[in-house]
Amino acid sequence: MDLSTPQRGPDAVASPALSSLNSPSKRASDLLKRLWHRIASNPKVAAGSVIVGIFVLIAIFGPLFAPFDPNAISRLKDTPPNAHHLLGTTVLGQDVLSQFLYGTRSSVFWGFVTGFAVMVISTAAGLASGYFTGVADDIISWISNVTLVIPGLPLAIVVVSFFPPGPLTIALVIMFTSWAWNARALRAQTMSLRSRDFVTAARSSGESNWRILFYEILPNVSGIVAASFVSTTIFVILTWAALEYLGLGDINSVSWGSMLYWAQAGGGVFSGLWWWFVPPGLAIAVLGTGLTLINFGIDEIADPRLRKEPKIKVQKKVVA
Hints:
Elements: H1 16-21, H2 24-40, H3 43-61, H4 96-131, H5 135-148, H6 152-162, H7 167-193, H8 197-204, H9 209-217, H10 222-245, H11 256-265, H12 274-302
Helix pairs in contact: 3-4, 3-12, 4-5, 4-7, 4-10, 4-11, 4-12, 5-7, 6-7, 7-10, 8-9, 10-11, 10-12, 11-12
């Protein structure tokens, strides 16, 4: 997909009306509108957005409809799904549906917040490293190279073991170990764009470096930024659930990972209490599928070789 803005010559003279139409903010706005139109028309992105949107709605409004306190203990232990407990109860008599609704809010919120934070860090580092050469590029490249050789999940296990368990600790560890990959991809793309004619023209007209980065270069790498956010969010949700399943998170909080941890610790897996561990495991898989569909759709939009253009039907004229 060609996201480049119209090229401008350094000696071009335009009227005020034409200048306002060709302003960086106007071009960036038009570029984002075209990008949004292509995203909305992609079936994979549409299907993935519906799946993710459902989980977001559950995360926002689900706890309001929870029938019980998720940590409340009752005498109805190991109860399969019934009219009173739609998803059954745990070995302590806790309502699984209530735990699932509260756990969706925690898992989705921290997954998207951490993914967004990683996207901001990787975007800032990639743009700065690719555009500013010299010492800034050397420092950022050195830090990213060191981060790339550190295994993310083992480091997260070690760090979480020594620091107070909780969502903030897990989020900081994932942020530290996940930003370098996307930053390297953005650095390469930024280095390619910084020598384009429209960037040279913007630099010759006296625009500041930060304005060039955010109004000229950033809209042209928006596809990579969006894809990095989606892929990072998938990784965050899976890593989050894995750490909590291992007991390295706050096991007293309600989330999908803690539900899986207590199902394993309470013998629910071997006792056949499928209604205890299937809902959180299935939710992780379905949400990951929705995010993956969005990621594949963004790849098709950003890469013309993967884009499927509609076929034009040619009507043949029958000569009598």
